[in-house]
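Ticket #395: bound-state structure for alpha-D-glucopyranose.
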Amino acid sequence: MHDKKEWFRGAKFGMFVHWGLYSVLKRGEWVMKLDGIPTSDYEKLAEHFLPEPGFADEWAQLAVRAGMRYAVLTTKHHDGYCLFKTDTTDYNATVGGPRRDLVAEYVQAFRQAGLKVGLYFSLGDWHFPAYKAVAEGARERTDELRTFMHTQVRELMTNYGKIDLLWYDGAWFDGEYLSAGILDSAGLNAMARELQPDILINERAGTTEDFVTCENECKPAPFGTDWEMCTCMNDLWGYAEHDYNYKTINQLIFLLTNCAVQGGNLLLNVSPMANGAVPPMQRELLTAMGNWLSVHGDAIHGVERLQRPFFGGGRITRREGKLYLHTFYWPGSSLRLPDLTADLLGAQPGKAAVKARVLTNGQKAATRWDGKVLIVDELPPLPPDRANTVIELSI
Ligand code: GLC
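RESOLUTION: The complex was predicted; output attached.
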């Protein structure tokens, strides 16, 4: 049977893109709220939001280069500015500012690059008057709010061909009022699924859907539930000129591996500038991720979720009868594996014939059993890759 979640389970790595009018101000995506900028002033940013032609192709190439398999773009963030053509408001990129449908350009570029396409949609909206009114208690305007959101989602689900993923956000920051009931999230998602039968939807409109999300920390969902962790390379999601708090390449590779071994995907954010260019530091880190994945991709993409994916030096993944030892703490030229079970090996510990090689540089290693302890010998004394050297065991 066709399983619509199969691609998501194998993907392991995706690109999150936070991009909108806030990118012009270079202080993150919450700047309107946090700096108390009046709507009439904030709207004027659209005149400075002028992406270069072909911006989306550059993102898509970068995502492919990084070894990513899907992407999620903020079609509308909390500021309410729509990057897509909509009949619900003139506050959109086809009327004010670039006068282009930026969602259309994004979908086309990523689809063409062979990536799955996701759309982020904020249910919180600081620009739409009924949003604020309902938040302050004017419940008689609930229908207006609901119609607005439903129409926008309908447009997104209708106007761009096949959409693979719908990523809600922003139903949380004005108290409890934006509940699944007020939003009619069940109806909203039923409509989305009718228009896009294969779509995967996250849980942030307050209902249980296809996968759950965690933010900035790796919190695996229980077995049987698909999940994704999103995080930034630095601290803020929207472009922030002076956010220098970048993770190192070793930290990013650890995060990716740690999600993958526990059955989850890492959705890693980029924050393009107002002209659409991805900041150099982010390009550099993504290129480095891609370099690592181009050698070690078999140990990440499509791996199974294991019950006990740990060993002394790091983490274990399994795929098509092979075990991959992700070694964050290099043991030196000899490695001892005392905890290999029959379940993990698919063969008897102490008896199975096991071949080993260092995936990182192709070097063969020797193996022997000491009782039920597998010993891998003749490894290089220093790790060929200091982020994560992978040893492949074939059983
Ligand atoms: C939080 C932030 C938002 C960001 C999101 C990403 O909800 O408010 O700005 O888009 O996290 O998951």
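RESOLUTION NOTES: DSSP finds 13 helices and 16 strands in the chain.
TICKET STATUS: resolved
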